[in-house]
Design a protein that fits this description.
By secondary structure, the chain is α+β, with helices and mostly antiparallel strands. Among the domains are: 149 residues, no CATH class; 106 residues, Leucine-rich Repeat Variant (Alpha Horseshoe), CATH 1.25.10.10. The protein is built from 18 helices and eight strands. The strands form three sheets. Strands 1-2-7-4 form a four-stranded antiparallel sheet, sandwiched between helices. β5 and β6 form a beta hairpin. The protein starts with 9 loop residues before the first helix and ends in a 12-residue tail after the last helix.
């Protein structure tokens, strides 16, 4: 096999890459090698073996490639990791007190970050290839690449106790992308762990999704439940979700390192004003065409209208706002059994046992067992026990 290309002036090449990264809107660039994340593979294997990946079967299906970047592309000699800051200019937890409005994770209030980053990465990669003669491949969270361990190995940050990447410059607010290349590039030192004795991210989690520091059980995570999980959300977690309808920023937002994060450039990642605190009533009224149109260009579109309205109905049930009863009642006749079932639950939480009985009589038995179970729980007042965090 031919030797990997080595650029004659590594210092100038590094300066070139950093300048191109800045020009493309990236806030950090570091370099590592494919063999620098071996321990991450064993941690991932244990995560999957314990079933903590939930229904994310894609993690198990390509486990070996995730564990070892060399299996994904054996010819790769260097990995350029790039980071883009998306720190908000406000406290993202304030919205949790506005019960009739929806809390959407900060990252999803912007354009889909895959679309924002991939084209820019391809531009940098093409220039790297032209200058070195090396082959390149670009990845942005759409291939079996473990971006966070690679970013740690490259020195961009470290994986905190919440398992997300933390940076001394940008806190917990970073998008990551990578350029794999056959070029031999000078590497950076790995970043050390700076979490210390802090456990703010662990203690704030509404559903106690961290079995131990640096471990996550996705099955309990609100981000997983609202985005990845396709079916009925277990009753024990619904009250804890509050008005979080897409993702959860709690563990990110309380990280003390965020005090060093500069607000992301509005020109680079501008949040949509209508996604900062949308009214639940408006979201509940979205049919499929309206959902697709409203979330065009947004990562939210990927979960589909059914899961999205499911999440909004849980938020409505937690709101205590009786004004939401009419739009929720209309969804009792929705085509989706998942939506119908969550509408039943939401109405049971908004109160009025007599009204529940009347609605049951008018709608009659449902053909789907999961919807019937929600009716049974609503009529008997069972099955709605909220998750209560363990005492610290």
């Amino acid at each position: 096999m031919c030797a990997a290309p080595v650029h004659k002036d590594q210092g100038r090449l590094r300066a070139f890459l950093e300048a191109e990264a800045r020009a493309a809107g990236f806030d950090g660039l570091r370099i590592t090698r494919p063999d620098q994340v071996r321990e991450a593979g064993s941690r991932l294997a244990e995560f999957v073996a314990r079933g903590r990946h939930g229904t994310m079967q894609w993690m198990a299906d390509r486990l070996e490639q995730r564990a070892d970047p060399a299996r994904l592309w054996p010819q790769a000699r260097s990995i350029v990791m790039l980071a883009m800051n998306y720190a908000p200019g406000h406290d993202p937890l304030e919205i949790l007190e506005c019960k009739s409005r929806a809390a959407i994770s900060v990252y999803a209030q912007n354009r889909d970050y895959h679309d924002v980053m991939k084209g820019r990465l391809k531009t940098i990669a093409a220039k790297l290839a032209a200058r070195t003669g090396a082959d390149v491949k670009v990845f942005v969270d759409t291939a079996p690449v473990m971006e966070k361990p690679l970013a740690e190995a490259a020195g961009i940050g470290w994986q905190g106790k919440h398992t997300n990447l933390v940076s001394r410059e940008f806190g917990s607010w970073l998008f990551l992308g990578s350029i794999f290349t056959t070029a031999e590039l000078p590497t950076d030192e790995a970043e050390a762990d700076h979490c210390g004795s802090c456990r703010a991210c662990l203690d704030v989690c509404p559903t106690d999704a961290f079995p131990a520091p640096y471990q996550l059980d996705a099955r309990r995570c609100i981000s997983y439940l609202t985005i990845e999980h396709k079916g009925v959300i277990p009753a024990e977690f619904r009250a804890a979700m509050g008005n979080r309808i897409y993702g959860c920023d709690d563990c990110l937002a309380v990280c003390p390192w965020n005090k060093f994060a500069r607000r992301a450039s509005e020109a680079k990642l501008q949040a949509r004003e209508d996604l900062r605190a949308p009214e639940l009533a408006e979201l509940l009224a979205l049919d499929d065409p309206a959902f697709r149109a409203f979330f065009s260009g947004s990562p939210i579109k990927r979960i589909g209208r059914e899961r999205f309205v499911r999440n909004a109905l849980i938020a409505a049930g937690n709101s205590g706002d009786r004004r939401l009863v009419p739009p929720v009642e209309r969804l009792l006749a929705d085509d989706s059994p998942l939506v119908r079932g969550m509408a039943v639950w939401a109405l049971s939480q908004l109160g009025g046992s007599e009204r529940i009985a009347t609605l049951r009589a008018s709608h009659g038995p449902d053909s789907q067992a999961e919807v019937e179970e929600e009716w049974r729980c609503a009529l008997t007042g069972t099955g709605t026990t909220a998750w209560r965090k363990k005492a610290s």
